[in-house]
Design a protein that fits this description.
375 residues; alpha/beta; two-stranded antiparallel sheet
């Protein structure tokens, strides 16, 4: 009998059970706190309500971040320092390779101040039907439907969401995957489209789409914020002019083993050997982006994705990200990068205690309510 294989299967099974149980006592707790117990606060003091909701949301994402860390799937941040963007309204553009992209971003942004509690994700509508879908709907993420039919309606819905949800709740960062799908699913069609229209031939990324990017830049640009898009402050006691978009952060994820991406199931069960995934940053002042001309904006975005293609080709070949698209390379940023992400075990234990005690409290309330209704 292969005892090492049996031990590996047992370990994966235990991890799966833990993640399942973790979902069962964390997600319902978040939902009950936000939709039931704290709901009166939403009507009395919305500002306070959304601050508390954001904290609960970040704590919930910490649970997800712990899944990858406990499996020793670490993250190394390289590239430009984006600490100056943390407290400003910023748009994150990232290449999309697999279902692991989102939980890894949840992990890497834990050390970015209040980013996670004030973030808005723009994601495929299918995510609405996952176990985390209800949480995202409560938090105010936007679900977009892919495809040509109804595209204009979807972009109009995004515009409305930015004004009525994103700005109303004073969110700061927006995370967008311009490729509109996973690399393995879109690569063939993207290359075919590129050949037909004279666009770059890409192998490690797919051609990005500018629709959602154009809407976000248009709604949140300085000129529009200052000329009519004035949002009532959430406490209804004053009118506040929101901060316009200040930064666009270009994020490139590079997976180990020649670009073999992790996946959410892999993270949950820990079936793959420990590894390090690299997150590369570049930042651009929004004023430097040609947002008023669609063709110029498309060219700007395509240039970023061509640079990603060059960087990933170099990374998969040598294990080093180029310092710039000119071909210079470094030791994958080790000397100047931030350290590999690590979990605060004390905080993780405290948050688990909070969610477990909350679950017990909610169960007791439900039992009491049932008894009152029955008797």
């Amino acid at each position: 009998m292969d005892w090492s294989r049996a031990l590996h299967i047992l370990k994966c099974t235990c991890r799966f059970i833990f993640v399942l149980v973790n979902n069962l006592y964390c997600i319902p707790t978040y939902i009950i706190w936000t939709l039931v117990l704290l709901r009166p606060l939403y009507h009395l003091k919305p500002v306070i309500y959304w601050k508390i909701e954001g904290i609960l949301f970040k704590w919930l994402l910490y649970m997800v971040a712990a899944w990858s860390w406990s499996a020793k799937y670490y993250i190394q941040e390289v590239g430009e320092d984006i600490s100056s963007c943390v407290n400003h309204r910023s748009l994150v553009l990232m290449n999309h390779q697999s279902t692991a992209d989102v939980p890894l971003l949840m992990a890497v942004f834990q050390n970015k101040g209040e980013v996670l509690q004030n973030v808005t994700w723009v994601m495929d509508r299918l995510f609405r039907y996952t176990n985390f879908g209800v949480v995202s709907m409560i938090h105010g993420d936007f679900f977009i439907t892919q495809g040509k039919s109804g595209r204009e309606a979807q972009l109009e819905n995004l515009r409305s969401h930015l004004i009525n949800v994103y700005l109303q709740r004073d969110r700061r960062w927006i995370i967008l995957f311009p490729e509109g799908g996973f690399l393995r699913k879109r690569l063939e069609s993207s290359q075919k489209y590129g050949r037909e229209h004279g666009y770059p031939f890409l192998s490690h990324v797919t051609l990005p789409r500018i629709g959602a990017l154009k809407v976000i830049l248009n709604v949140l640009q300085k000129e529009n914020i200052g000329n009519g898009i004035i949002v009532d402050h959430l406490n209804n006691e004053q009118v506040k002019k929101p901060e316009p978009l200040k930064w666009v952060i270009d994020v490139t994820v590079g997976y180990p083993d020649g670009g073999q991406p992790l996946s959410l199931p892999t993270i949950c069960i820990g079936s793959r050997p420990p590894c390090v995934t690299y997150i590369h940053y570049r930042k651009f002042p929004v004023d430097d982006i040609p947002s008023n001309n669609e063709e110029d904006l498309r060219n700007w975005l395509f240039e970023r994705w061509e640079e990603k293609e060059v960087m990933l080709k170099e990374f998969y070949k040598t294990g080093k990200f180029p310092v710039s698209h000119l071909g210079e390379s470094s030791d994958c940023g080790h000397k100047s990068s931030q350290p590999v992400q690590k979990l605060n075990c004390v905080l993780w234990i405290c948050l688990n205690v909070f969610f477990i005690v909350s679950t017990y409290f909610h169960c007791c309330l439900l039992i009491k309510l049932w008894q009152v209704l029955v008797w």
